[in-house]
Amino acid sequence: MKDTLTLPYFTQAERSIDYLGQYKYLDIDGLDLDSPVGERLLLSEGIFVRGPKLAQLENLVVDGHKTVVLEPHPDDLALSASGRLMTSIAAGGVGKIINIFSKTAIDRFPWRDKITIAEDKFEELRLLESNLAVEEFLGQEFVSMKLPLASKRGYEEIFGQTHHDDALAREIGEFIANTSLEFGADTILSPLAVQGHIDHLVTFDAAIFAKRALGDQVSLVFYEDYPYSRNKNAYRRRIGQVAGSYALSSEYVAVDDYLNIMADMAIIYRSQFDDINRDQMLAIMREDFRAVALEAKAEDKDVGAECAQRYWRMNES
Predict the structure, then answer these.
(1) What pTM was estimated for this model as a whole?
(2) Dihedral sign from CA coordinates of 216, 93, 248, 160
(3) Rg, C-alpha atoms of the chain
(4) Which H helix or E strand runs over 167?
(5) By three-state DSSP, how is residue 89 classified?
(6) I need a labelling partner for 137 at 20 to 30 A (CA). Which of 79, 90, 98, 228 fits?
(7) For residues 311 and 222, is the Cβ–Cβ distance under 8 A?
(8) Tens-place pLDDT, residues 92-109
(9) Cα 140 from chain centroid?
(10) Are 137 and 130 in contact (CB under 8 A)?
(11) Complete edge-to-edge strand list for the sheet that includes strand 94-103
């Protein structure tokens, strides 16, 4: 199918589309996949995704902006920060995505009751998805530190207010600073760590370290972690915590033009979703970011769009 990315972990059997060759994901008995109906079904289910259609992708004049995006886990960029990166790409900017943690326990695999897979193969699948989403779909750079998630580092609870990984945060921060310097980044996008996922807290502290190391060479901007930011009590509490230590200012990015691309990108991470298809992902994103646009309006900040993402800029060196 023209201008599409077919996801390699879906394969066509005689009468079905199978996931990882083990689970019958979609019954296609009697369906012509080359027909408009078949094509629409495969797109809706996320068996393949359309290539991004950012308005200015042809004949770009690169504007020089270079953004490093930090994602604690594969899919954090797609779920929480893709709108800002896509806006930058459409204006001629480029991005580099640094995944921090990828090694995880098999009990985090939502398809585990349907699929038999080893932990190292699970990690390979997660990183394959990131490479597809970032490099093949968006055409940007991707690198992973391939570190173990909190549960693999001995944490019994993966949510909290603090962590005991100060040395690790410094190590990650040094990697971020060096990578950002080599890349020539002017902006680092980091999770805000809403609701206190340990890996997000460690990444947040690593971003602070990198900012201090690089000083005015980079701007540090925080994105609101989804799905955690849907918890408004946790969101307000985290904003209060961060604003108590750093001067923050909010920035809104209109995402109406990118919602379909954002949903296409997010659904590539099928190892994270066993019960949701592409159209459902689009509906969830639309509601999340419609709510943000309404919150902006309540603050007398009209973003000029129905849907928006909010980011928080740190205003000190």
Answers:
(1) 0.94
(2) negative
(3) 20
(4) helix 166-183
(5) helix
(6) 228
(7) yes
(8) 899 999 999 999 999 999
(9) 13
(10) no
(11) 141-148, 94-103, 66-71, 187-191, 219-223, 308-314, 248-254
